[in-house]
Prior knowledge:
Number of strands: 9
Number of helices: 12
Shape: globular
Radius of gyration: 29 Å
Bound molecules: pantoate
Strand order of the largest sheet: 1-4-3-2-5-6
Distance between the termini: 99 Å
Largest sheet: 6 strands, parallel
Amino acid sequence: MAFLTAMSQMFCINFTYLFAECFCYMAFYMLFCTCFLGIIVQNQSSIMELIHTIEELKRELSKARIKGEKIGLVPTMGALHEGHASLVKRCVKENDVTVVSVFLNPTQFNDKVDLEKYPRMLEADCRLMEEVGANIVFAPSVEEMYPEPDTRKFSYPPIDSVMEGAFRPGHFNGVCQIVSKLFMAVEPDRAYFGEKDFQQIAVIRAMVKDLKFKVQIIACPIVREESCLAMSSRNMLLYPEERKIAANIFKVLSKSKNFATSHTLKETQCYVIDTLNAIVGLEVQYFSIVDGNTLQELERWTDSDYIVGCITVYCGSHSIRLIDHIQYKGKE
Ligand code: PAF
């Protein structure tokens, strides 16, 4: 009897131990699952999606819209660099969902050789966009964006007919065609554009006003390389020594600001053109000093409160077209 009592007591004690041990294991297992799955879910929410069709894009974005989330769009033609990354970073900060479109739009290239030369690198683009926190890369085919030829005509003179508009006939019509299609597909609350393309922003603002798109256009400052050359996908097409030469564009523009304080507008214009043309490897296509709002050419410094000098220069052995600008007066 004493033996049985001792045995049952022993079993009781062992059973208690066993129970306690199981409980500890279960608690540990639950804690592990919660943390581990939590990390997976958290990571999954930041996984970037690559979408190729408007239908899928609209389906994804409608989920965000139902939740009342703000959608930001960064339109690009790919070959992305730190300049684009800065637009995306700002978009991520100011919106719940960031869509980056990567589409080399054929309708804005009046020169087919220029289109062929344009760098294409979707995989690297996606890696960079994921790093800077984009949620969706929208990379449609030409057939997806233009199932039929786009015959729409956009015209906002003089904003789209001077400078780039004059030297690249049809360019801004193509820009308006694709940007309006992107706005219709994404219906963004905000869209981000780099100020390097100063005239493009003015044209897009005119189109938004004309077509009454409910999107806020955000112009973001130029990002420059260490040499002060404005970042551009086209810089990749320059040899290293040509990049050094190209850095003179902004150096001369910067010097011209000081020059302008003691010279007339026309003298300043000649100073920039002549100084750059004297550098082997550079050839100025145009340098216009314009009103920053209307983009109309000016005669005198007193003609406007907001004055910008816009330049396009051919650079290097392959005549790569580089654009930049400098502000002489007005908004800083
Ligand atoms: O600035 C660009 O990269 C293009 O003109 C844009 C706005 C993406 C339209 O194709």
